[in-house]
């Protein structure tokens, strides 16, 4: 298995021409790969500011918890396979920011729902065309992400384009990248070998490492 960077409109047609002839599966990371996270984060920061104009301290607490939650993913990345990843991430975030776990959980759920509203406008161009080309060529498509992916793909209108969607917290995986467990599970379910698959991601230290593993 090899890994490739995200695709945009300028390179999608060229990428189609370069795909290996024996390719049978195209697997994607989600955040930062199918959509640009930067405008989403900017809009969320503005929304957080507007929502907390009358209570800046509450807004600061929310920002603190969100940052701790994102950082917690890196803290738990080396946990052994089988861990309850969602709970472990919330627990690590709560320790990092000094808040209660239920407060962190509520904050994350609220702002995750708010983020869904901005995904479609941040989608990288060329993705749909590439997926449609893959289907015409009989190439299976899948998503593997460190975060839940179904709701995001549905909101972006991309879910019908994928044969399989998994994330690190699924019971059959329970391991974060760079562990190869998620990719191995997808290959097994799609019934293709690693030599017949391409993984597209945006972080060499986790995505490329998982594909290499």
Q: Cα-atom Rg, whole angstroms?
A: 18 Å
Number of helices: 10
- Portion in beta strands: 5-15%
Strand order of the largest sheet: 1-5-2-3-4
Oligomeric state, counting identical vs distinct chains: single chain
Helix/strand structural class: alpha/beta
Cα end-to-end separation: 9 Å
Overall geometry:
globular
Task: Let me know the average pLDDT.
Answer: 91
Fraction in helix: 40-55%
Q: What is the total tally of β strands?
A: 5
Low-confidence stretches: 8-13
Order of helices and strands: EHEHHHHHHEHEHEH
Major sheet size, sense and barrel closure: 5 strands, parallel
Verbal overview:
With 213 residues, the protein is α/β, with parallel strands linked by helices. 54% of the residues lie in helices and 10% in strands. It contains ten helices and five strands. The chain has a five-stranded parallel sheet. It is globular.
Write the SSE topology.
Blueprint: E1 2-4, H1 9-18, E2 25-28, H2 37-51, H3 56-75, H4 85-97, H5 101-116, H6 119-122, H7 127-136, E3 140-145, H8 150-156, E4 164-167, H9 181-190, E5 197-200, H10 204-212
Parallel strand pairs: 1-5, 2-3, 2-5, 3-4
Helix pairs in contact: 1-7, 2-3, 3-4, 3-5, 4-5
């Amino acid at each position: 298995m090899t890994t490739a960077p995200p695709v945009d409109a300028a390179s999608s047609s060229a990428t189609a021409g370069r795909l290996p002839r024996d390719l049978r599966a195209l697997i994607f990371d989600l955040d930062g790969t199918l959509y640009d996270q930067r405008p989403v984060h900017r809009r969320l920061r503005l929304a957080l500011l507007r929502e907390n104009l009358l209570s800046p301290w509450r807004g600061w607490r929310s920002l603190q918890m969100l940052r701790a939650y994102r950082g917690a993913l890196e803290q738990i990345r080396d946990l052994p396979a089988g861990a309850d990843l969602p709970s472990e991430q919330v627990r690590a975030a709560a320790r990092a920011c000094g808040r209660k776990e239920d407060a962190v959980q509520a904050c994350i759920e609220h702002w995750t729902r708010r983020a869904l509203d901005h995904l479609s406008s941040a989608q990288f161009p060329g993705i749909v065309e590439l997926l449609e080309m893959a289907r015409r060529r009989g190439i299976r498509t899948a998503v593997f992400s460190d975060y839940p992916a179904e709701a995001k793909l549905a909101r972006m209108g991309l879910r019908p384009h994928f044969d399989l969607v998994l994330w690190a917290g699924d019971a059959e995986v329970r391991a974060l990248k760079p562990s190869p467990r998620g990719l191995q599970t997808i290959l097994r379910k799609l019934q293709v070998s690693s030599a017949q698959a391409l993984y597209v991601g945006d972080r060499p230290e986790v995505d490329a490492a998982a594909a290499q593993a």
